[in-house]
Specification:
- This protein is of the alpha/beta class.
- The chain has a single domain, classed as Rossmann fold (3-Layer(aba) Sandwich).
- Helices cover 28% and strands 28% of the residues.
- The chain has 6 helices and 10 strands.
- It has a 6-stranded mixed β-sheet, with helices on both faces. A 4-stranded antiparallel β-sheet has the order 2-1-4-5, covered by helices on one side.
- Strand 9 and strand 10 form a beta hairpin.
- The longest helix has 18 residues.
- The structure holds adenosine-5'-triphosphate (ATP) and magnesium ion (MG).
- The site of adenosine-5'-triphosphate (ATP) has 10 residues, from helix 1.
- The site of adenosine-5'-triphosphate has 10 residues, from helix 1.
- GO terms for molecular function: ATP binding; ATP hydrolysis activity.
- One of its GO terms (biological process) is alkanesulfonate transmembrane transport.
- This is Aliphatic sulfonates ABC transporter ATP-binding protein.
Length: 217
């Protein structure tokens, strides 16, 4: 059984403008529950903007974003956004970075989340002792502890070397298989998009310019 059912996402007629610049222009998108979507497009086309809207970090000028039937901005607890740089707090140990902001008895969950990314043995170290790839895995554990129904990843692997990147890709793929959350991954790397996702979206001129299903043999 899937641990966390993914949430369906419905984006309808969403526009986002910064000043006189229209970044997203009446964008429509439906993501079925549990689908793994990769978003590609030229620098500045609005990929991170779309993720921030999906995370409820900013509001659209027009249109609406729903998780199932709930406005996405109000279901933020289900949503985790992971950026390219992991931003761990250097003065908190690895385990405390995973449990950041949680109350109550979170330690066991934090160990479980660290175990899921293969880092339980580094729990009591300082972030400075970790490599870039390990920091990314801690950031992933920090997302997993919330049992997200929608996982938003903004270029999470961009700074990693090729081999570590490959390891992280297979970790993300296996966590997705296991948990069943919906994933939206922004990446510059089209081959990464095709390798990981069910579906690849190209953002162009504020809209979905290309929507490709990827058949995994
Ligand atoms: P990249 O691949 O380089 O990360 P992106 O597709 O993620 O690019 P966004 O960060 O979504 O692009 O930015 C889209 C456009 O919106 C850019 O032209 C950017 O300069 C502009 N923009 C983003 N945030 C703001 C803001 N807070 N105020 C003004 N303009 C912004
Ligand atoms: Mg971006």
């Amino acid at each position: 059984a899937r641990l966390t059912p993914g949430t369906p996402v419905l984006v309808s007629g969403v526009s986002r403008r910064y000043g006189s610049k229209t970044i997203l222009d009446r964008l429509d998108l439906h993501i079925p529950a549990g689908q793994f979507v990769a978003v590609v497009g030229r620098s500045g086309c609005g990929k991170s903007t779309l993720l921030r809207l999906l995370a409820g970090l900013e509001k659209p000028n027009d249109g609406e974003l729903l998780a199932g039937t709930t406005p996405l901005a109000r279901s933020q607890d289900d949503t985790r956004l992971m950026f390219q740089d992991a931003r761990l707090l250097p003065w908190k140990k690895v385990i405390d970075n995973v449990g950041l902001g949680l109350r109550g008895n979170w330690r066991q969950d934090a160990y479980a989340a660290l175990a899921a990314v293969g880092l339980e043995h580094r729990a009591s170290e300082w972030p400075a002792a970790l490599s870039g790839g390990q920091k990314q895995r801690v950031a992933l554990a920090r997302a997993l502890i919330h049992r997200p129904r929608l996982l938003l990843l903004d270029e999470p692997l961009g700074a990693l070397d090729a081999l570590t990147r490959l390891e992280m890709q297979s970790l993300i793929a296996s966590l997705w298989q296991e948990h069943g959350f919906t994933v939206v991954l922004v990446t510059h790397d089209v081959s990464e998009a095709v390798a990981l996702a069910d579906r690849v979206l190209l953002i162009e001129e504020g809209k979905i310019g290309l929507d490709l299903s990827v058949d995994i043999p």
